[in-house]
Amino acid sequence: MTLQLTPMTRAEFAAWRDGAQGDLADELVAVGTEAVVHDALVEAPWRGLGLGRELMESIEAFIRDEGATSVVFRIFGRNRAGKTLCESLGYQVASTTMRKSLGAVHPRG
Question: Phi and psi for 44 in degrees, rounded to 5?
Answer without folding.
Answer: -50, -45
